[in-house]
Amino acid sequence: MNSRLLLPIVLTLLSLVNAAAADKSVLVRACIYAVPKKAALALMDAPAFTSDPQASIHALRGMVAEKKASVASNLCVSALLGTRTNIQSDFMLQFEVTEAEGGAIKLVAALEKRMKAPTPQILATLTLKRGDTQFLGSCDDPSSDPNAPTWIVFVTLQ
Amino acid sequence: MRLSFVFTFALVCLSTGVAIAKGGDLVCRARVFAVSKEIAASLLDDPKLGGDASAALAKLQQMATSGQAEVVANPTTRTPVPGRATVKGLVGLDMEVAASETGRLKIHALIEQGDGQQKTYFNTNTEIERGKTTFLGTLEPKGEAAQTWLVFLHAQ
To answer: What pTM does this model have?
Structure first.
């Protein structure tokens, strides 16, 4: 092999090693929308609600603009693959991200609303790629008030 | 002969990276901005936020000038690498720093605001680079109605 080619090859390998290292960090974001139960039911009845999360989020943002829903929480935190991370506000999100097949990332998450028992909680496992957004789940305020919210949660990995 | 030069060069590159990560004290400056939850939801859509967050930081600084965002805290501390540093105040920062084998800096940080039932915090293990701004995460203080606080870290 021409030794002049070796230097660019080695430098490329070095940059790939650095890029692989950079990929160990992932930004995990859970956006939680509060939607009145009846409106949430209608929204989630849409056939593409889970398969087309961007369209669902677009619909939710429209409802937020019209004051028919609100952004309840933006939980966002940087995490290293293979470690457990938690973030707490009115909601508590605990998760672990690990490498999955085909460059995907497995997310095992527990999200709960901090309030008196019975505590609304979602436990879910998702497989995503960087840049993906997926519907994590929804949970309801335990009160019998018909105007009490359903919390709809989408997760994004960056 | 040339082959050995190439490998020596590669080793020098690697060791320089590690030396840069290890060398000297690290000044860690967190910048915390408050925005409405709706604006935060839109800002957090930025796909570059997980990498170099300097563009997002510049945007927030502009928003702070125009009154759409508010600068709420600037906790700054200094530590050798490896080491541990703590700042207490409106936003508390407790972090351990170590050099990673990749030449970056591995950090374990607890960022918190408030206490007791009012506490909002996040706990993160991540890797950062000297000289670059990293977005660490969000806080949502109880008393601050409908606000999300965005936390950036710049380590120099």
So the answer is: 0.81
